[in-house]
Amino acid sequence: MNVANFPRTSDPTMVPTIAMPSAGARPGVRTDAAGRLDRPRLPPPSMVPTQEGPQGLRFDFNDGCRVMLPDNGPAWRVRLSDLETANVLFDIDLRSGHVNSSKRYFIPFRLEVWSEDELLLRHDYDASGRDVLIQFPVGTIGDVIGWMSYAVKFKALHQCRLTCAMGEALIPLFRSAYPDITFVTHEMIQAERYYATYSVGLFFDDADLVYHPCDFRKVGLHRVAAHILGVDPTERPPRVALSEDSRPIAEPYVCIAVQATTQCKHWNNPDGWDSIVAFLRTAGYRVICIDQKAESSRGAYRTRIPEEAEDQTGDRPLTERARWLRHAACFIGLSSGLSWLAWAVGTPVVLISGFTDPSNEFATPYRIINRHACNSCWNDARHRFDHEDALWCPRWKGTPRQFECTRLIKAEHVEAILRSIPGFGQGLSQQTRPQASAAQQAAPARPDDPAFAAGSQAASAGGDEPIALAALLARPRGDVVRGGLAIGVTVAAGRLLDQAAAQIAEGDRSATAGDLISAMQNYRQSIDIVRHLTQAEPDNGGFQRNLSVALNRIGAVLFVQRNLPGAYAAYSAGLAIIQKLTAAHRGHLGFQRDLAWCHALLADVLAAQGRHAEAFEHRRSNAALVTQLANTAPDDSSLQQSLATSYQSLGDAFVPLGNIDGALTVYRVSLGLTKRGLDSNGQDPAWNQLYNTLLQKIRTALLAQRKTPTPS
Predict the structure, then answer these.
(1) H helix or E strand, kind and range, residue 569
(2) d(CA 21, CA 3)
(3) Which of 143, 459, 505, 604 shows a CA-CA span of 20 to 30 A to 489?
(4) Closest-CA residue to 224 (of 359, 38, 378)
C-alpha cells in the first residue's frame, strides 16, 4: 500500500503527490539493457480520483484503488479489503493524504473510510453501468489481438461501459465487430471519465507482482490479460470485422510471413522457406507473402521474401492482411502479430517458433518446435528479454549455437505438419476454407446481411453432407401457437409469428428437396418477420427463440454449401440469443436444450475449419448441459441417448488435439451409458448403432495409443 501525506491546505504551495511503485514496474515503462527507463507508453490516470464521496473524499479504481483525503481537521481511517478472499489488505489512520493500493490489477475491493468513529463511506467495487478503461500498449499487434477477447469478457462480467485504448492501426479490426465498445487511441483518452482503469501489458520487471498477479512467462502471453482483468483464462479468438471481405484471388493459396521484429523470432533455417514454398507450389497452391517488409538485415543475418512466393508486402492496413488470411487455405508464420491475426480470422495456423514455449501462444494443432535444440528462452524467467537487442539470444549469443532453436527446425517437419491439415493438397480452400460465391463475396458474412440469403448455387455433391442439417429440420420450429392466438402477444403479433413459422416450414421442405436457394430465401424472410417483432418487444423470449431457430437453419444450409465463415456467423448469433434467454430464464428446460444444441452446431463448423481447440470447448459445454438435462429426467430414453451421443462427440473432439487418453476415457463413459440404454430399451436399433460405433472408435484409439512412443 502506498500513502502520500499532503501539506495542510493553509499552505498556498500545496501540490498533491501521488505515491507510485518503483519506476521499473510502472505500466508501459521499459528499461534498456543498462536499466535506464524509457518514457511510459501508457497514459497515467487522472491526478485526482474521479468519484466523489462525503466531506470532500474522492476515490476511484484507476490504476488500483485510490482515495484522496482532504485535511478537514479530524483524523481519517481508511481500510481496503478484498471481497473475494475476505482479506483486509490495508488499515491506516492519517490526517490527510492519498492512499493507493499496492496492486494495480483487478481486485474486487471494498473501500471503507471513517472520520473519527463515524463510518462515512463503504463502497464495494461495482462497475455496472460505469465507464471503465482498458488500455493496451502501442507498437504491438499480436499481443493486443490475443488480449482483446479478455477485455470483452470483462465487459460481459461487469456490465460496464467499456473503452479500449490501443494503436490506431488495430481499431478498424474491432470497431464494427464490437459496436458496444468504444475504441480510442491513447491521445483520445479522457482520464477524468473513468471509474476504473486497467493496464494490460507484459511487465518484465514486476518482481513484486504489482501490475499482474502472475508472471506472463508462466501462463502465456495472451492469458496474462485474463489474470490482470480477473476473468476466465480460457482462450477465445476475438471477432474481426472487415468492410471488404471478398476473396482476393480465385485459386487456392497459402499465406506466409517470414519477417519479425527480432531475429530470434525468425525461422533461421537458411533453406527452410524456399523448400516450403516449393513444396506448397507442387501441392497446387499459390504462395502469398504478406509481411510488411520484403527484406530485413541484422548484422550477418539477412531475411528476404522467398523467391517463388508472390509479393503482397508493404505498408498496408491490417484489415487488408486479414482479408488475405481469412480466405487462405492456411497460414505459415512465426510467433508474431500476423499469426495472431490469422488465428483471429479462423485460418489454420502453422506456427514455427523455438524461442517461445507453445504455451506462450494460442492453441493450434499445427505448432512446430524442436525440443532437441535449445528452446523456450522467452518463457524462462531467468532471462530478461532485451527489446533493444535485435540479435537477442540469452544462452548462446556469439557462439555456433546461436538461434539453433529454429535453425534446427527442418523443412520436412513443416511439410509433415502441413499434410496433417484436413484436405491439404486436395482443394483445401474449397473443402475446409470454402471459396465464396459472387454474392457471398460482395459483403462480410453476417446474420443480417443479404449474403446469407444468397448462398451458393448448388448443394454439396456426394455423401459428405453434414448430419446437422437433417437433424435441424427435425427440430421444433419455435414457440408458435397457430391461429394468431399466441399467449401474451397481440393477435397481429401472433399472426406474424404464424407467418414466420410457415416460412421456416416452407424452407424445411425446400431444404429436404435439395433446393437450398429457396430454403435460404424462406429462412431469411422468417428472420425479417421475427426481427421486426423483437424490435417491438425485445424482452419477449418466444420471439427471440424463433430468431435463433431461423439463424441455426441458415447456418446449417451454409454448412452444407461449405460456406464455413457464414455458418459460423449464423450459429454464433443463434448461440448468443439462447445464452441470453437461458440466463434470463434459468429454469426453462427448452432454452437449456437449445443452448446445448447451439454448442454442438458451433463445434461442427469449428472442427471443419480446423479450429479444434475451440470446437473442443463447445463440445465440453454441450456435454455439461446435456448431463444436467439428463439428470433431471433419468427415465427419458431420448435424453439418455443424447447424453451418450454427446460424450461420444466429446471423445471425438479430444482426438485432433492429440489427447488419445482423454478420448478413451470419454468413449468409455459413453459406452457405459449405451450399455445401460440397451438393457433398458430391448436392443433398440439406435442404441445398437451407437454401441457398435463406440466399439470401433475405442479400438482405433487403443491402436493409436499403442503406436504413440512412451516418453523416456
Answers:
(1) helix 564-584
(2) 11
(3) 505
(4) 359
Give me the pLDDT at residue 507, please.
81
Q: Any idea what DSSP says for residue 377?
A: G
- Of 60, 63, 71, 143, which is the active-site residue? 143
Classify residue 517 by burial, with Cβ atoms within 10 Å: 0-12, 13-18, 19+.
middle
pTM, two decimal places: 0.59
- Tell me the pairing of strands 2-4 and 97-100: antiparallel
Q: What is the pLDDT of residue 707?
A: 65
C-alpha distances out from residue 93 to 75, 116, 121, 147, Å: 7, 9, 15, 39
311 is catalytic: no
Contacts of 416 (CB under 8 A, 6+ apart): none
Check residue 491 and give its pLDDT: 63
Phi, psi of 489 (to 5 degrees): -130, 165
Show Cβ contacts of residue 22 under 8 Å, excluding neighbours closer than 6 positions. Answer: none
Burial of 125 (0-12, 13-18, 19+ CB in 10 A): middle
Amino acid letter, 193: R
∠ Cα 696 699 705 (to 5°):
140
Per-residue pLDDT, 636? 83
Low-confidence ranges of the chain (pLDDT < 50): 1-26, 28-40, 427-467, 475-488, 710-712
| Distance of alpha carbon 425 from alpha carbon 427, whole angstroms | 6
- Strand order of the β-sheet with 87-94 is 87-94, 76-82, 109-115, 118-124
Q: How far apart are CA 151 and CA 228, in angstroms?
A: 10
Q: What is the pLDDT of residue 573?
A: 87
CA dist 132 to 48, 53, 189, Å?
16, 19, 11
Looking at residue 499, its pLDDT comes to 78
Q: Residue for cell digits 491439404?
A: 424
